[in-house]
Amino acid sequence: MWVWTRPSSASYKSGLSTAGTHTMRPSRRPGTFLLAFVLLCTLLGLGYPLRCEVCKATGSSCHGKIKTCRRDQNSCMILVGKATSKGKEWVHTYKGCTRSQDCYSGIVSTTMGPQDYLATNSFCCQSDNCNSGFLSVPLTNRTENGLMCPACTSVFKDKCMGPMTRCAGKENYCASLSGHVQAGIFKPRFAMRGCATQSMCYANPGAEVPTASHILILSRTECSRAPMPEGW
């Protein structure tokens, strides 16, 4: 919270007309002004807690209440994701508070199998209620690019193994993630591997990644260039 103090410019005088009567004036010593300046800058740096719109829903939009963020959350986020699994497709939207180091503005695309892939479009900002707008559903380029990565997903495990899957579009990296799923009071472990755009590599351990129904808390992230197949 900002704290504003305004010193009085009026003199203080004793009510008695005696030799002890004196006047107290604000000090003009440079050190006093320097201390006041540093204190003011410190108070301004603390600022008010950020307030963001918070909601999640299936579909390309959602509306929710404006809530106060935690002190360590200095950004508002809006994320629209399109997921496909075994031929079925759905869209979800998430809005909420996040940390700037966990938030990426742009498109992230991943492939975890021939019929399992996900693309998200996200936007991060740092002012009150700045995530109240809309984002377009990300366009997905499913044209195979000749690269391949091991792909799998697993719950209740820290690692998973799977067959090679073909990457698409700008998915030039192989990514491996693990951590915990924050779903109410339960926090089961998860692991996933697959093709990814370079933007997925910006995720760091400790990051909180929103999905349609829960938050993924990453504990391990690995990312490397997808190897070129022989003959290319």
From TrEMBL:
Stored InterPro entries: CNF-like_PLA2_Inhibitor, LY6_UPA_recep-like, Snake_toxin-like_sf
Span of domain UPAR/Ly6: 50-140
Cellular location(s):
Secreted
Q: Enumerate the UniProt keywords alphabetically.
A: Secreted
**Which region ranges are annotated with the description Disordered?**
1-23
The cross-references to SUPFAM superfamilies, in alphabetical order and at most eight, read:
Snake toxin-like
- Cite the record's Polar residues compositional bias ranges: 1-21
Give any Pfam family that matches.
Answer: UPAR_LY6
| GO annotations of cellular component type | extracellular region
Q: Which domain of life is it from?
A: Eukaryota
What this protein is called in its record is Phospholipase A2 inhibitor and LY6/PLAUR domain containing
Source organism lineage? Eukaryota, Metazoa, Chordata, Craniata, Vertebrata
Gene that encodes the chain: PINLYP
